[in-house]
């Protein structure tokens, strides 16, 4: 069943009437405003300091005439000699004489032979067979004399010496890597330098190798 609106509760029922009444009142108010309110005339605003008019006269543009260039200097006449004698030029003979004996050229200066720079030998750090002291570390220890200064001061420890061993097993150079002082470093380096090594080998061939040797300094209780 359809539901119908009650016209009593319809809010748009008097909408057109209220709109017409409002429009009539607005027109009446506008007409009354034009009839009963006086008209305002525009006031002319006169500035306090009127600007003065300055008449500008037309000034004729003057044309600056440039000064004419100075006349060219007169040419000085040059007297030419009546007769000019030309010197005879002798042309040398350019034909090549095949039968002429020509001296051989001078020999070039001798080339100075530069002395070959001595290159430092290359020592391997690691090879297949490292050098080993003949007699072992005990052989090196037997060559060391404990310094008296180190004994009196009670100095003990290890001294590390780097030895450069050639292909023949001889020590060419020694370097101190880490020392303990009191004369022990010098004694260890001297003992390593006097030691004969078994040469290192790379692919079965003797080569130069650098090896580090550790030597112990220890006091024995009496």
Shape: flat
State the fourth-level CATH superfamily of the domain at 132-217: TonB
Per the CATH scheme, the topology name of the domain at 132-217 is TolA/TonB C-terminal domain
The topology string of helices and strands comes to HEHHEEHEEEE
Low-confidence stretches: 80-85
User: From the 3D coordinates, which CATH architecture of the domain at 132-217 would you assign?
Assistant: 2-Layer Sandwich
Question: Structural class of the secondary elements?
Answer: alpha+beta
Terminal-residue CA separation = 132 Å
Number of helices: 4
Q: Biggest sheet, strands in spatial order?
A: 3-2-7
Instruction: Provide mean pLDDT, rounded.
Output: 76
The profile of the biggest β sheet is: 3 strands, antiparallel
How many E strands? 7
Q: Rg to the nearest angstrom?
A: 63 Å
* Share of helix, binned: 10-25%
CATH class of the domain at 132-217: Alpha Beta
Binned strand content: 15-25%
Can you tell me about this structure?
Mean pLDDT is 76; it is low at 80-85. This protein starts with 14 loop residues before the first helix and ends in a 5-residue tail after the last strand. The chain contains 4 helices and 7 strands, in the order αβααββαββββ. It has a domain at 132-217: 2-Layer Sandwich (TolA/TonB C-terminal domain), CATH 3.30.2420.10. The strands form 3 sheets. A 3-stranded antiparallel β-sheet has the order 3-2-7, covered by helices on one side. It has a two-stranded antiparallel sheet with strand order 1-4. The protein has helices spanning 15-36, 136-142, 148-153, 184-193; strands spanning 132-133, 157-165, 171-178, 197-198, 200-202, 205-207, 209-217. The protein is of the alpha+beta class.
